[in-house]
Amino acid sequence: MRLSLKVLFVLLVHQTLFSQVPIGQWRVHLPYATGLNVEIAGNKVYCLSSGGLFLYSLDDNSTKSLTKIDGLSDVVINTIKYIPEKNTLVIGYENGNIDLIQDNVIYNIADIYRKPITGSKSINNISLINGVTYLSCGFGIVVLDVERHEIKDTYYIGPGGVYMDVSDICADDTFLYAATSAGIYKAYKDDPNLVNFANWSKILNIRNNSKKFSRLAFFDSHLFAVYDDNANKDTLYINNGSSWTCFDTSLKVINNLIISQNKLIVVEDYYLKTYEPVSYNSNTYSSFSSSVYSKPRDAEFSSDGTFWIADNNLGLVWLKSGSWTYEFTHPNGPAKINSISIGIGGGQAWVVPGGRNSSWGNFWNPGEVYRFKDQNWSTIASGQISELGLMPDICEVAVNPNNTSQVFLGSYGGGVMELNNGNFVARYNENNSSLQNIIPNAPYIRVGGMTIDNSQNLWVTVCGDVSNANVTDLINVRQSNGHWKGFSVKEDMGAGLVGKIIAAKNGIKWVILVKGRGLYAFNENGTIDDVNDDQKKYVSIIDENGDVISNEVFSIAEDNEGLIWVGTNKGVVFYYNPENVFDNPLFYAQQIKIPNENPGQANYLLEAETVTAIAVDGANRKWFGTESGGVFLMSPDGTKELLHFTKENSPLLSNTIVAITIDPNSGEVFIATDKGLISYRSTATAGQESFHEVYAFPNPVKPGYDGLIAIRGLITDAHVKITDIAGNLVYSTNAEGGQAIWDGKNFSGEKVQTGVYMVFCTNDDGSKKYITKILFIN
Question: Which of 5, 181, 438, 661 could form a disulfide with 342 if both were Cys (CB 3.0 to 4.6 A apart)?
Fold first, then answer.
């Protein structure tokens, strides 16, 4: 497959995030400071990070990320290699996919990706040896024909021809060598039958000859090999022709071994060492920045002597020949791929990267929060707020909709933190709140969920253990006046873990009971301090016959009409009359039937999917994120599929969705996946009670523009009519929430002519009106 990069290499402008993402367009939010590989390609330098690939142009000193939006076929890149003779960048992915970038065109080679291989298909490394491109893979060695865009050969070199994890390949004048998880193998490089495993043999005269070797290099007529101990005791061996000896005893953690411009480069955890041939005199490079630790992962010298480094904290680093001042760059993005919860308000997005394992135990990720403000990402960590060091695994974030400068962070182990405009206000624990430790007198408070109600009260669920012996107040509230109160609901809620909580408009709080225990409904009836009128009930998710649909609940949301939507491992259910939860003994959920291809038959909405995320947009449409099926956009009543995004048909980073949150003002849908964060500019925004700051964009519509035109700031579901300056009607539509969309064409499907067009907007009864204009220049 081939895909043109269009103006990707022609318009290399500095990487910025546009303030107005076009409707129907995507943008990725990935970390680029975590450099892994660097490749010099003429007047461009490619740098691979944990978040993806970017390039730096030497012509204009610009930086540009390259993603699926730009035409790459996949997301998780393991390694890159530039082939100068073919002017080709080879991109190797974790899942075996391969992309070639040649002359501004992307070619995809998906043979390995599609092949049914048991075990890893990962492309670990790419080597160019005597004009031949070798791929070190999780199952063996692949020979790639870069010119013909095809796989030429595959070598399974393990005993009996079994798969073997190969991490690197090099060659001397006689042999081809492969570093594997079970030692170093060699074969005559000119052997015409390298596909025969019997022609590969293990090198036995080196220590640890049956253990993992990670890197190889042939330098100064000697073979070098890195023994990977995985315990800060790596060893770099050198072969003197008959035996192996340790080359440099000062090296302990060796991340890479490179030959560049007749120098041997050894990449340690926090520094690099370069060695000259013959003498093996060395230079050490470290401390690239005065404020951030250096963590080099790859390096290469260019012909002018510039030292280029991929650094895991700084992105792309370089040191010009004769200079001792390092420079560095990377596209803007959050610090890490992880994102488990997203809060939006005041034109800002807050993302937290904590986590819980499948047993609801800790990952112990450091306390951090990523802030997207003015179209740029910044990180708030313990270096800025020391108390974040006491907040491991921040899994929840809540933004006060009435005071968007107030943000709360919930930690799975460290309680709750309050920020104001990104500044520390307080950390709430057992000493200054009603939050309870899972272990008596131990600072370990596990937040399960957080939400803010219409009265600006923060509601927090706290996870106990199997018995909840020490956590009786599983629901807590921080009132708008700052006072805390806990609610002892242990007996009603039952033992076990509690998850997310939402506060419905009618005052009822809905709590997810994890591990197959359904839901819990709670209402303090507006009197937080009076527990006598509290209403509470365990809710099993049953149908009208009393049969359990599924109590494996993963997500919950209230829509614009007050209906409660619940995501389970068997699709979606909803409650049409949620206010009756406490009164109706047979409080049952409803399922939506979707006709299938068989006449007279239907399926329940997403019944084959585990629905992990639910968000409701300004037009009351439902966005459903799933565990393995991507994202579904459904009509307000859930009966019609409007969009279905997967990693196969869109730039979506993964089909595993963790969270979805929508910016009500812009309509931008932020989607957290297990591979990172991406957003999509939707057609719907939140509607207004009156016309407010109405405007159209783009305006003027310039020649060549073929995208959608949005009219924003409208009354909910406004009626919109568009006429030319003479009053002739050319288009009419209804707003989706607070935004109407026009493709710039008349009723006949023809693009309108140059001129001014009037936009007339009204509510249902015509009592509220607004007029704006759009200029077309064709």
Answer: 661
The Cβ of residue 380 has, within 10 Å, a number of other Cβ atoms equal to: 21
Which of 68, 34, 678 shows the shortest CA–CA distance to 335?
34
3-class DSSP state for residue 198? helix
Tell me if 352 sits within 8 A of 340, measured CB to CB: yes
| Closest C-alpha to 121, from 184, 150, 78, 89 | 78
Tell me the residue length of the chain: 778
Taking only the tens place, the pLDDT of each residue in 62-106 is 999 999 999 999 999 999 999 999 999 999 999 999 999 999 899
To 5 degrees, how large is the angle CA 391–CA 393–CA 399? 75
Under 8 Å between Cβ of 562 and 575: no
- Rounded Cα distance, 502 and 614, in Å: 12
**Cα→Cα distances 555→265, 278, 484, 542, 569, Å:** 50, 64, 26, 16, 10
CB 741 within 8 A of CB 733: yes
Q: Does residue 13 carry a pLDDT above 70?
A: no
- What single string gives the DSSP state of each residue in 687-736? -BSS--S-EEESSSB-TT--S-EEEESPBTT-EEEEEETT--EEEEEE-B
Q: Are 676 and 69 in contact (CB under 8 A)?
A: no
Single-letter amino acid, residue 547: D
Containing 169, the helix (H) or strand (E) segment is strand 166-171
DSSP 241: S
Report pLDDT digits (tens) over 581-638.
999 999 999 999 998 888 878 899 999 999 999 999 999 999 999 999 999 999 999 9
Span 147-158, pLDDT tens digits: 999 999 999 999
Q: Which two tokens stand for residue 217?
A: 């290099």
**Alpha-carbon separation of residue 472 from 342, 414, 483, 533 (angstroms):** 28, 18, 19, 19
CA torsion angle for 293, 296, 297, 299 (degrees, to 10)? 160
Nearest one of 423, 418, 443 to 431, comparing CA atoms = 443
**HEC string of 294-344?**
CCEEEEEECCCCCEEEEECCCEEEEECCCCCCCEEECCCCCCCCCCCEEEE
- Taking the C-alpha atoms of residue 613 and residue 661, their distance in angstroms, rounded to an integer, is 9
CB 447 within 8 A of CB 460: yes
Residue 201 CA to residue 742 CA, distance in Å, equals 67
Chain segment 259-290, per-residue pLDDT in tens? 999 999 999 999 999 999 999 999 999 999 99
CA 731 to mean position of chain CA atoms: 39
